[in-house]
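Design review, sub-item: ligand-bound model
Attendees: FS, YL, KQ
YL presented the inputs for the zinc ion complex:
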Amino acid sequence: MVRAAAADPQVERIFVNAAIKKALCREAQGDRSWLAKVRPYWGHDYHMHVRLGCPNGSAECKGQERPESGEGCGAELEWWFSDEVLHPKPDTEPAKPKPPMTLADLPPACATVLGGK
Ligand SMILES: [Zn+2]
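KQ shared the predicted structure:
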């Protein structure tokens, strides 16, 4: 399923848990170029995240940068299994919570979609 999504030209990036990426790197056969679009990312323990490219003629849409070259199965992936990531040191001070995102923080087109303006 991940390979099929990554092979779709409309898909720019797929975020998954690092364990999923590791399994894909281990199991992928033949053309492995699609692995470049599949990247581990924080918070993707219970879902995969498919980021689509901008539709044609969408002036306000900002596309993703091209994925880094390579399959992303080497040192970049191994970092996710390092002690630094698996057993982080506790913060000395608790992090301040981020302020909630409001409609005013989003591009104006989002207000139109949400019916807020
Ligand atoms: Zn996500």
